[in-house]
Amino acid sequence: MSEDLIRNRQLCLDHAEGFIVAAERVGVGDYPHIVYHLSLLALEEVGKASMIGGQLATGGTIENRWMDKALESHRRKLQWAIWSPIERIDPKDFEAAREFAERMHDMRLASLYVDARAQLADVPAGEVVQAGDAEHALALARARLDYERACGTPDPDAHRTDDALRWFLDIMADPEQSRRLLSKAFIAKYHALDNDARAWITWARHEFARIDEESRTLLQAELVKPAAQAGGSKPKWRANAIVYTPSHSLRPKVLQRWNAQIEAVQLLWSGKKDQFTLQLTLNDNAPLTALPGRLAHLTKLVVACLNIGSIGYFWFERPGFERQMFNQILDLENDRHLELGSNESFWGDRRAVALTEAYRSCDPLHDGVRASGRGRGCADFSALL
Fold it and tell me: What residue numbers bound the domain in which 51 lies?
């Protein structure tokens, strides 16, 4: 396995070199955005080499599923391109690299394609990247490539006993675990230990173990705990899910109107007009083993009612309706295919409309749910809480 990792790391660095040479030949004079894109591609290859180096440094112990997920993310590869935990472990470096990757990738998206529906005041895609941006990206790509090569290939045998590095890289490869490690409480402890990374990692490992043990104990207690008797239940569980809509433009006041009437099902404003956070609160009138099914049932019911009431599209993933809905339309009377010229796609191309309280007139939630949460029909949520 180590031989394959070493070879793949070298291939990534060689590929990065090719992008950098191409960018240098293009030059920033006439095509700064092209130089910028080539430089970011080079940085992504360096980031992949850095990830592989992390695997080598831990004896190949990082789980491949997290590695695979990171390799599919442009932002994650850019982040690893400028974050080198092999030489120094510092959570501040990781956060700075994450913010840098976000900015670089956002500029890439803004300059990659021309928006055919852009307004006159919008900056053309080819002008988003300035010469200074391209020069900086190219210089950074060259510096990071040279640095990665100067560091050399990590020796798997030399790091097999470095448990701290192995644990840290394994945690950072897991998005969920890394969020906990970089939370405010953990960062505060890092500063309290005078920014001593080794001491902080030792403390964090014990803290992770303690939290995991507490979670297992609570889970066991909940599994044997009897459900509350009818009429004596109280709120126990709260879960959040992101819901997207391409059909409607959301407004905070409309969501607040819903939230004022249905306490257990909240539609929380996210700051974005095409998505909100669906927050569910369930009672303790069912065993823990039934919780996943209850949550899935209620979330789907809420979204179904939203779709029916608004005659729109609400779901837990962004729609990818790009291809045409019908591949052919046959005229039965004349026995020939009908050419419409603009066959409608799955969702169509109509613009989003504002979601208002007017939809409540045809919304099954309007008649089915009262402020008390007790109603009838498909919107009777009270039995599910």
Answer: 2-182
